[in-house]
Amino acid sequence: GVREHCCFLKQVEDARRIRTAIVNLFERANLPNLTDDQRKEILTFAVIGAGPTGVEFASELRDFIEQDGPKYYPNLLKHVRIKVIEASPTILAPFDKSL
Q1: Angstrom distance (rounded) from CA 93 to CA 99
Q2: What does the DSSP assignment read for the chain?
């Protein structure tokens, strides 16, 4: 269910937990016995909600991967996928459409 497979982002401690989980996923994906498909599965991040928090988190996740990834996991970067999933037809709905 959701509680077992998702990380919530409501408090500072949640952000720490997410960072640790991301690093753990990279470590897991770096195991030598995995196939490329398994690495892609492990390194696919789904951000649920395209409001301000979801879009900002997806952006920060990408920055984290692009800045720290080449130093520690250069061979894994090609497997990373970040997907933002939104139920409504627009992203950043609270903001003016001209943005």
Answers
A1: 10
A2: -HHHH----SSHHHHHHHHHHHHHHHHHHT-TT--HHHHHHHTEEEEE--SHHHHHHHHHHHHHHHHHHHHH-TTTGGG-EEEEE-SSSSSSTTS-TT-
Amino acid at 58: A
Q: What is the pLDDT of residues 19-67, one digit of tens each?
A: 999 999 999 999 999 999 999 999 999 999 999 999 999 999 999 999 9
Give 19-31 pLDDT, tens digit per residue. 999 999 999 999 9
Q: Are the C-beta atoms of residues 59 and 47 closer than 8 Å to each other?
A: no
d(CA 95, CA 19): 28
